[in-house]
């Protein structure tokens, strides 16, 4: 008699876990190494069901001061579930030589509190799976650093913006607010 409850719990754990993985959108079914950490960032756990802004960043770019505006945007909407994910990249040859220097630029120089990954490829054949999915959904690869993708609660790209678009741009804010209104 006692074997059945244990077996049922085991089956529930196995199949329940698969059901949870199936509910996670393809865009978020990835793990990336966190910046300034030995831990990885499970995108489903961290961002599943949340509106999200994903930005490829660089430490030595003319757009690097956008970190300040990205942080302000994050703080403005984070209590509503909004998240920002910064993905440093040297694809445009403007990222710091070390992850430590990247972390200093983000966390010390600009006071970033939103999630940041270790440097990743965001363009071409070497693009991380997250960026391959962003590109597939939006039809647009980042053309430069600080290219922005707004993702709704279902893990779908609903808007994308060039590097020239500042974090306080009305069109970007409107897209973020649309993502906030989306249903999980």
UniProtKB/TrEMBL annotation:
Signal peptide: 1-21
Family matches, as CDD domains: GSH_Peroxidase
Active site: 61
GO MF assignments: peroxidase activity
UniProt keywords, alphabetically: Oxidoreductase, Peroxidase, Signal
InterPro entries associated with the record: Glutathione_peroxidase, GPX_AS, Thioredoxin-like_sf, Thioredoxin_domain
GO biological process, one term: cellular response to oxidative stress
Superkingdom to which the source organism belongs: Bacteria
Short name of any one Pfam family annotated for the protein: GSHPx
Domain Thioredoxin: 13-181
Recorded family membership: Belongs to the glutathione peroxidase family.
Name used for this protein in its record: Glutathione peroxidase
Organism: Metapseudomonas furukawaii (Pseudomonas furukawaii)
